[in-house]
Design goal:
It contains four helices and four strands, in the order βββαααβα. By secondary structure, it is an alpha+beta fold. The protein is globular. The termini are far apart.
Length: 98
């Protein structure tokens, strides 16, 4: 079953997403998937309310695919990720402290 959720007016969650893909969107300054994944998991672990919400919907430290509900929880806590499209990227990636 495919589930679409609208988090913001212009941002739609469309199904499951790889954890590593979303990590790179949130932390584009990392040159490797591993670095972005570690940073995202660390930030999740540092925020007790976020961790508890994600755990309640099935997230663990081994989760590799994020459900639409998990993505929605992350977006509510952190806002939408930084997505680089052709023509809108900066010379230096903008880093948001989360």
């Amino acid at each position: 079953m495919k589930e679409d959720k609208v988090v913001l007016k212009d941002y739609v969650i469309n199904g499951f997403k790889l954890f590593s893909q979303l990590a790179l969107e949130y932390f584009p300054g990392y040159s490797t998937l591993n670095g972005a994944r570690k940073q995202m998991r660390g930030r999740i672990d540092q925020n007790l309310s976020l961790t508890l919400e994600l755990n309640a919907v099935g997230y663990t430290c081994h989760t590799t695919h994020l459900s639409p509900r998990m993505q929605e929880i992350l977006f509510r806590h952190w806002g939408p990720p930084h997505i680089i499209l052709p023509g809108n990227h900066l010379e230096q990636p903008f880093r948001i402290e989360r």
